[in-house]
Amino acid sequence: MVTKLISKRLATRCANLALLSALLLIAQTSTAEYQLLDRVVAIAEDDVVLASQVRNDMRQLKRTLAARGTELPPDKIIYEQVLERAIIDSLQLQRAYRSGLRISDQDLNDAMQRVAEQNRLTLPQFREALEQSGQSYLEAREQMRKEMLIRRVQQRGVMRGMNIADSEVENFLQSSEGQALLEPEFQLDHILLPLPEGATKQQRQRAESTMQNLAKLAADKLFAELASELEAAGARHAPLGWRRKADIPSLFGETVSGLQKGEVSEVVRSDSGLHLVKLIDQRGGIEGTLRETKVRHILITPNEIRDEQQARELAQEVAAKLAAGEDFAALARQYSDDPGSALRGGDLGWNAPGKMVPAFESVMDIMALEEVSPPFESPFGWHILQVIDRRETDFTRERAKERARLIIAEGKFEDELNNWLQKLRDESFVEIK
What we know:
The protein has about 425 residues and is of the alpha+beta class. It contains 16 helices and 14 strands.
C-alpha cells in the first residue's frame, strides 16, 4: 500500500513536471524546433523552483547588499543561499495552502496601504512609483500576499509548539524589564514662572493670576504653542518628557497621579516659583478591572416531547410561579434543562463579560440585583435569570502575565522558528537538480 502511494505521488509529480516543461518551450520554426527558456533547479514537495526565479532573487539580493555597502560574497555562495531560501519559502507556502490559510483582499489592501504610508506616499502614488521604477504593482501585491501567508504559517507552526512555563513568566515579572512593564510612563509638559526671592504678596497674587490664565489657554493647546504668551508673562517652557513615576520630581508626583490625559494641573508652588504641568500622554503599565456578575437561571429547551411553542409556554408557567413567590432554586432543580447548573439551583457562578452568549448577556447586564427576568430566548432555548451579585475584579496581575508571556514568546520566536524551519526542511521531499 505504501509503495503504491509513493508511486502514485511520484507519477503525479512527474506529470506536473512534464506539463511545466511543455509550457517552458516555445516554437521557433514551423519544423517544430524549440528553445528552452527556463529550467527546473529544484523540486520541493509538489512544487518546483525555476532558474529564472533564482536569478531574479540573486539580482535583488546583490542590489540590497550593494546599497548597504556590504562586500558581495562569490556568486556560488549567493546562489546556494538564494536557492535554499526559495525551497524553504515554497515548502512554507504549500503548508499554508494545505492548512487552509488565506489572505483576504482587504487584509492585502491594508498591508499595501501601510507600505505606501511608510514611504510617505498614497497608495496610487506608491503604485505609480513602482511602475516608474520598472516593477509591476500586481507582482508586488502578489509577493506581499505570499509574505503574509508565510508569516501566518510560521506563527501558527512555531507558537503552537512553544511552551512557556509559569516559572518563566514569574521570573520575567520580577526582572527589571518586567517591572518596567508593570510601571506606566508619563509624557509631561511643564512651564515655570520664576519668582524673585522675597516676592511680595502682591507679586505672588499677580503671578498666580497669570498662571491660571495660561492654564486656561493650555487646555486645548500644548505649552509650546503659547510661546508669545509665555514670553509676555516671563514664564519658561521646560518640558519634562517621558518619566516613570519614580523619576517624576517629588514636587509633581501627587499632582501627576491625579491628571487625565490632556489635562493641565492646578498651579503648583515651590521656592523657585509657580509651575503648571500637563499630561500629554501615557504608556505602559497594566491596570484593569472587569465587572463580574453572579447569576442563576432556569433553562427550558425544546426536545422530543416538547416543541418550540410548548417550551415557551412552560417557561411562562415557571415565570408565573416565581412571580407568585416560589423558590428560584427549587424551580431550577425541578424544571431547568441545564444539567450543569440545575442541581445547584440554577447557579452559574461569577461571569466575566463575553463568557455568555450575547442574548443572555444583554439581559443579564440590565437586570437589577435580585430582579427576576421575564422569559427570553437564546440559541439554547428559553431562559429566566436572576442576578445575585456584581463585583469589580482586578485583573491587573492576569493581564501582566499575558503580556509577559507574549514578550517571552517574541524573544524565543527566532530560535524556535529556525528549529521549525529545519524540521520542515528535513521532513519534506527536496531534490536539487
